[in-house]
C-alpha cells in the first residue's frame, strides 16, 4: 500500500486478493508541437507507484479528479494498456500478456461509449457475443433471461441500439457485459446522464449481482450516490497515486465535507439553532443547514422536528468533486492537476 495513504487498508483484504497492483506505473511519451516543424518530447506519468488489492466479491469505488489516472488504471486492468513498471494481476493473470484469456473473466461497461452494434437490434448484439465468447447455450439463455427480467429489457430486444434512450442503452450495455458470467466487472460512469429512476434501477441491479453472484466490481463515477449506495470501500487517486483507501464516511472526515439539510417550516422564523449544524441560507420559511457529512442526519432531523414547526425536509449530498477537492486540500494538495486538461491535438502518443 502506498505510503501516506489515508485510511489505507480498511476494507482491503490481502488474502485471496483478486485484483493486485504492486508499484504499477504508466508513463506516456507524448510529442508536443512547439513550432512549425519542431516537436518536443515529454513524458506524462499517468499512474505512479500504484499499489492496492481488491478481494473477490468486493465492490469498490475508484474516484479522482479529471486526469487522475482512473481510465489508465482500468485500461491496464483489462490488458488494453501495458504498464511501464510494477506488477499487476487480475485473477492471477497478467492482463497485458494474456488479454484474450482474461477477457473471458472480466466485463467492462464504459458509460460514455457502447460496446453494442449501433445499427443492429439489441438481441443481435447479444447473439454475436454468445458466439464471440463461446458461451455455452444453456448458460447464455439463463444469463440473458435474468438480465432481460431484472434490467427490464424485454420490450427493447428488437429495437436497433441507435433508437434506444441513454438509460435503455446503458442497461443494454450492462447486460452485454454480463452474458459470459464475468467474475469482475469494471464500470466506468455507469449512471452518467441517467434520470433518477434509471439510476435507481441500475444500482439495484448491481447490488443484487454482487450479493447473489459475488461479482467483484470496480466502479468509477462522478456521482457520490453511486458510491454511497453501492460501495463499502472507496479509493481516491490523484496524479496517478493512491491518496485514500477506506470507507466513504472516513473520506468525508478527512476532507471535513458537509451535507445540507433543507428544512421547510410552517412560517418564517429566525435561523434554526441546532449545533453542530449551522444555517447557511434562509429564504422565507425555507432554511438550509450545513452539517458534517461523516455523521448521520437522523439525530439532527429528530431534534428539528421536535423543536420547530416542520412541514418538509430533504438532505442534499455534497458533490463528489467537492469532497475530493477538500480531501486533497487537507492533504496539502490543491487537486489542481496541471496536465489534467484534455490533450491538444498537437500532442500525440508515441508509445
Ligand atoms: N494515450 C495517452 N497518451 C498520452 N497521455 C495520456 C494518454 N492517456 C491518458 N493520458 C494522460 O494521462 C493522465 C491520466 O489520464 P486518465 O484518462 O487515466 O485520467 P482519468 O482519471 O480517467 O480522467 P477523467 O476523469 O477525465 O476521465 C492525463 O494527464 C492524460 O492526459
TrEMBL record:
Pfam family, one: ABC_tran
InterPro entries: AAA+_ATPase, ABC_transporter-like_ATP-bd, ABC_transporter_ATP-binding, P-loop_NTPase
Protein's membrane topology: Peripheral membrane protein
Start and end residues of each ABC transporter domain: 31-264
Cell location: Cell membrane
This protein's name: ABC transporter ATP-binding protein
Recorded coiled-coil stretches: none
Main location (coarse class): membrane
UniProt KW ATP-binding keyword: yes
Swiss-Prot/TrEMBL keywords: Antibiotic resistance, ATP-binding, Nucleotide-binding, Transport
Presence of keyword Nucleotide-binding: yes
Superkingdom of the organism of origin: Bacteria
GO terms of molecular function: ATP binding
Amino acid at each position: 500500500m502506498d505510503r501516506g495513504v489515508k485510511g489505507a487498508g480498511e476494507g482491503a483484504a490481502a488474502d485471496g486478493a483478486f485484483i493486485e497492483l504492486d508499484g504499477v506505473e504508466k508513463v506516456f511519451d507524448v510529442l508536443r508541437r512547439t513550432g512549425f516543424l519542431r516537436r518536443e518530447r515529454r513524458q506524462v506519468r499517468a499512474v505512479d507507484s500504484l499499489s492496492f488489492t481488491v478481494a473477490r466479491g468486493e465492490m469498490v469505488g475508484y474516484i479522482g479528479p479529471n486526469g487522475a489516472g482512473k481510465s489508465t488504471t482500468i485500461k491496464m486492468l483489462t490488458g488494453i494498456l501495458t504498464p511501464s513498471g510494477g506488477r499487476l494481476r487480475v485473477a492471477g493473470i497478467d492482463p497485458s500478456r494474456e488479454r484474450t484469456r482474461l477477457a473471458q473473466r472480466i466485463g467492462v461497461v464504459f458509460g460514455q461509449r457502447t460496446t453494442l452494434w449501433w445499427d443492429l437490434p439489441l438481441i443481435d448484439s447479444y447473439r454475436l457475443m454468445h458466439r464471440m465468447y463461446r458461451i455455452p447455450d444453456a448458460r447464455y439463455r439463463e444469463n440473458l433471461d435474468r438480465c432481460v427480467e431484472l434490467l427490464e429489457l424485454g420490450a427493447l430486444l428488437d429495437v436497433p441500439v441507435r433508437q434506444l434512450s441513454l438509460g435503455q442503452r446503458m442497461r443494454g450495455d450492462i447486460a452485454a457485459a454480463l452474458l459470459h458470467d464475468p467474475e469482475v466487472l469494471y464500470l466506468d460512469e455507469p449512471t452518467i446522464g441517467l434520470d433518477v429512476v434509471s439510476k435507481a434501477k441500475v444500482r439495484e441491479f448491481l447490488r443484487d449481482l454482487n450479493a447473489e453472484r459475488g461479482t467483484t466490481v470496480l466502479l468509477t463515477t462522478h456521482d457520490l450516490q453511486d458510491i454511497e449506495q453501492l460501495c463499502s470501500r472507496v479509493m481516491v487517486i490523484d496524479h496517478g497515486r493512491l491518496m485514500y483507501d477506506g470507507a466513504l464516511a472516513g473520506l468525508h472526515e478527512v476532507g471535513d465535507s458537509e451535507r445540507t439539510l433543507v428544512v421547510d417550516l410552517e412560517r418564517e422564523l429566525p435561523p434554526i439553532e441546532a449545533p453542530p449544524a449551522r444555517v447557511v441560507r434562509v429564504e422565507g420559511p425555507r432554511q438550509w443547514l450545513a452539517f458534517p457529512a461523516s455523521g448521520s442526519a437522523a439525530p439532527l432531523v429528530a431534534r428539528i422536528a421536535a423543536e420547530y414547526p416542520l412541514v418538509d425536509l430533504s438532505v442534499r449530498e455534497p458533490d463528489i468533486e467537492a469532497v475530493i477537492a477538500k480531501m486533497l486540500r487537507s492533504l496539502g494538495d490543491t487537486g489542481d492537476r496541471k496536465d489534467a486538461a484534455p490533450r491538444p491535438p498537437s500532442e500525440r502518443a508515441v508509445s
